[in-house]
Amino acid sequence: MPDPRTERERMVETQIAARGVCDPGVLRAMREVPREAFVPSHLADGAHVDRPLAIGEGQTISQPFIVALMLEAAGIGPQDRVLEIGAGSGYAAAVASRLGAQVCAVERIGALAEAARERLARLGYDNVEVRQGDGTGGWPGGGAFDVILVSAAGPEVPAALVAQLAPGGRLVMPVGERSGPQQLVRLCRTPDGLRQDDLGAVAFVPLIGAEGFAEDS
User: pLDDT at position 4, please?
Assistant: First the structure.
């Protein structure tokens, strides 16, 4: 197996920094978190390629560039509370935990939630909490979040997530059709209301839930 540290360095330099992501905290965190530990063992040799990888249950871990792009767009500060919807293997939550104070991650699929919880604890990411549930409802009772990251595409931004966004907060999410065009958007809560920025075309698995797509559609 190639040296993971060397592979992570190459990933950051050639796939992320070379494509315009320049936030030093994001680049440092992407170098630090062992991406190979968040994919199935038979895919570990290819963990650092710039494409999504299957993690089971019909879900994927996003390509490294997209993870870095979303984190840079979110502008996570050291005191920020982060909510991630669609935890998957726990990789993006782990990277976000190196940038913020606390990460609350929601995963719809029980087997993935349990595996992510165990993996994050084993690797020492003690400022991440994983909960199984409908991510379109956010983290009820958890208060407001400075950053909300959604790792699945919905037809629109769920109202429950907007309601949980703190003043000055940033929400980054893909929006669009279930199996068609999708756009990565950022919502910022400003004193004048919500501002939306379009960040480019993307392709994500669908966001399933009460304020997303139906599971059987």
Answer: 86
- Segment-wise mean pLDDT, segments of 10 residues, the chain, 217 residues: 87 96 97 96 91 90 95 98 97 98 97 97 97 96 96 96 98 94 96 95 94 83
Residue 166: partners with Cβ closer than 8 Å, 6 or more residues away = 81, 144, 145, 146, 189
Q: Which residue, among 84, 38, 85, has the nearest Cα to 63 in the 3D structure?
A: 38
Tell me which residue of 69, 71, 65 sits closest to 52, measured CA to CA. Answer: 65
d(CA 38, CA 180): 27
Concerning whether 89 is annotated as a catalytic residue, the answer is: no
Catalytic residue among 62, 89, 97, 151: 62
The Cα 107–Cα 105 span in angstroms is 7
Q: How far is CA 125 from the centre of its chain?
A: 15
Element of type H or E holding 162: helix 159-163
What is the pLDDT at residue 1?
62
